[in-house]
């Protein structure tokens, strides 16, 4: 069920473009429980009666069942292991955008340190693989 909480600002287009990389005819926002669905475009993979089962509740409870009449698929992505729907009124992605942006220097430092460590580990693994390969070649 959709949760009522303090209103969050809409996430930026840049952030939404970065996280929303999938599309479905029906998708739930894991952050608020709302069900989003697109229009009944011919050729889409609707099960028999599925659109009607969503459309009727969207008239009675439009905050819980959100009909996107202007598109056949609803765009979504994964954020913190949960489905987040583009244009969901819960705007939960804005909390993550704010966190990432406020801590961007820390995050950048972490990425740099982690990449250096992984590069070092990869070089060590390559050297080990090369020595094993040389050993095998010498014994033939």
Rg (CA only)? 23 Å
Order of helices and strands: HEEEHEEEHH
Q: Termini, distance in Å?
A: 67 Å
Proportion in helices: 40-55%
Going across the major beta sheet, what is the strand order? 1-5-6
For the largest beta-sheet, the strand count, sense and barrel status come to:
3 strands, antiparallel
Give the overall form.
Answer: elongated
> How many strand elements?
6
Number of helices: 4
Strand residue percentage: 15-25%
* Structure classification: alpha+beta
Low-confidence stretches: none
State mean pLDDT (0 to 100 scale). Answer: 91
Structure description:
The chain has 140 residues and is α+β, with helices and mostly antiparallel strands. It has a domain at 13-102. Helices cover 46% and strands 19% of the residues. It is built from 4 helices and 6 strands. The strands form 2 sheets. A 3-stranded antiparallel β-sheet has the order 1-5-6. A 3-stranded mixed β-sheet has the order 2-3-4, with helices on one face. Strand 5 and strand 6 form a beta hairpin. The longest helix is centred in the C-terminal third of the chain and has 36 residues, at 104-139. The chain is elongated and about 75 Å long. The protein starts with 12 loop residues before the first helix and ends with a helix. The relative contact order is 0.17. The mean pLDDT is 91.
Short description:
Helix content is 46%, strand content 19%. The protein contains four helices and six strands.
Features of the shown structure:
elongated, three-stranded mixed beta sheet, alpha+beta, 6 strands, 140 residues, 4 helices, three-stranded antiparallel beta sheet
């Amino acid at each position: 069920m959709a949760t009522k909480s303090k209103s969050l600002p809409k996430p930026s287009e840049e952030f939404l473009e970065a996280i929303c990389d999938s599309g479905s005819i029906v998708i739930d926002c894991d952050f608020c429980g709302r069900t989003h669905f697109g229009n009944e475009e011919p050729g889409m993979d609707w099960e028999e009666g599925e659109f009607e089962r969503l459309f009727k509740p969207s008239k009675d409870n439009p905050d819980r069942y959100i009909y996107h009449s202007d598109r056949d698929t609803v765009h979504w992505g994964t954020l913190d292991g949960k489905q987040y729907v583009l244009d969901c009124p819960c705007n939960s992605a804005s909390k993550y955008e704010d966190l990432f942006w406020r801590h961007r220097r820390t995050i950048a430092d972490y990425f740099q340190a982690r990449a250096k460590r992984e590069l070092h580990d990869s070089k060590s693994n390559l050297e080990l693989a090369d020595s094993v390969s040389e050993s095998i070649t010498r014994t033939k």
